[in-house]
Amino acid sequence: MDEVVEVLAAQQSELAGVLEGLGDAGWRAPTGCEGWDVADVVLHLAQTDELAIASATGRFAEAAAALTAGLAPVGSVDAGAALMVQRQRGLAPAELRARWSSNAAALVEVLDAMDLSTRVTWVAGELSARTLTTTRLAETWIHTGDVAGALGVDLAPTDRLRLIARLAWRTLPYAFSSAQRTLTGPVAFRLVSPGGEAWNFVPDEPPTTIISGPAAELCAVAARRLEASATTLRAVGPDGDAVLALVRTYA
């Protein structure tokens, strides 16, 4: 199994552990996602895993049309996701847990069986199946944290963050383009892993901007779960503040 697929499966397992034995009150616990409880977050993951399976099997447009059928057009991905959750919320916890678990396992199976260099369609446009896998890893990690936070479960950061941090670094041009901004020059990330190791993501050309600090903080900022001003991250260079404001790991 390719490393990125294996790491996605491990992240899914961490979420499964958090959900294990969860009672009705836990499913209704409010999360940091405005207006969403734990059930809504898990439903969102189930829905987006369905879309990812469809993407990997050449059926993205069909699956997206089915999930959004009858919904009014919206101006953003987040607004669309909210409407999809709103329409399907209310499933019994056992049914919801089974739907997410089944989709998560099916996604890993599909990705493990394919050439990850294959180009596929996703929300943000065309990308490689490897990048799709990494975005699913990032989103699953983000929402695992949302669920754990709602339930008062403390999860230690792991080396799974390396692939998420690298995704944040590699997609900076997309993040800037989406914000109608332009990078002045190449950016390097010089991060520290949860275990204290150096994780350096450096461009081919000398960087004009360098972001340094804990990888866990960088990933949380990219997930929009932590303000850069509340971290120990250090930005040096002309694009430093903009990178910390725009960096992201999702479409």
Give me the secondary-structure topology:
Blueprint lengths: L2 H17 L4 H4 L10 H19 L3 H9 L8 H12 L4 H20 L6 E4 L2 E4 H23 L9 H10 L1 H7 L8 E6 L5 E4 L7 E6 H8 L11 E3 L3 H7 L5
Parallel strand pairs: 3-5
Antiparallel strand pairs: 1-2, 3-4, 5-6
Helix pairs in contact: 1-6, 1-7, 3-4, 3-5, 3-6, 3-7, 7-8, 8-10
What features would you describe in this structure?
The mean pLDDT is 93. Helix 1 (3-19) packs antiparallel against helix 6 (93-112) and helix 7 (129-151) crosses helix 8 (161-170). With 251 residues, the chain is an alpha+beta fold. The longest helix has 23 residues, at 129-151. A 4-stranded mixed sheet has the order 4-3-5-6. It has 11 helices and 6 strands.
Which features does this protein show?
alpha+beta, single chain, 54% helix, Four Helix Bundle (Hemerythrin (Met), subunit A), globular
Cα distance, first to last residue? 26 Å
Give the low-confidence spans: none
How many helices? The count is 11
Radius of gyration: 18 Å
State mean pLDDT (0 to 100 scale): 93
Short description:
The chain has eleven helices and six strands. By secondary structure, the protein is of the alpha+beta class. Strands 4-3-5-6 form a four-stranded mixed β-sheet. Strands 1-2 form a two-stranded antiparallel sheet.
